[in-house]
Amino acid sequence: MGSLILAAGTKGMRNSLPHSRIMIHQPSGGARGQASDVLIQAEEIINLKKQINLLYAKHTGKPVEMIAEHVDRDHYMSPTAALEFGLIDNVLGRQEDTKIGLETLEVTPETIRPETRSHRPVK
Prior knowledge:
Layout: H1 2-7, E1 15-16, E2 22-24, H2 35-60, H3 64-71, E3 75-77, H4 79-85, E4 90-91, H5 95-98
Parallel strand pairs: 1-4
Antiparallel strand pairs: 2-3
């Protein structure tokens, strides 16, 4: 439920990188055992789903009915869609700024930390 933790973050500080994917979904679980135990677990998952929907609604400002529709199945979002949905507040950087070519990387023996230059174990 990482997206719920993200949505519940401090307003204005809920960030995503431009190439991220954010998914919302309903809780799931595997029930085994006697029928009465399976029923107890199913009821608990249904109650958890209701609580989660209320929390998403609280933190996104969306109606709980809309949340329920979106979490019914796995729902993946781009950062832009997550921003519009109210899960995040900012997309860090622009894609143009984050694209780099190999020629811009300065990986030389001098730029590599000494402890990572060798694959030999440190004694």
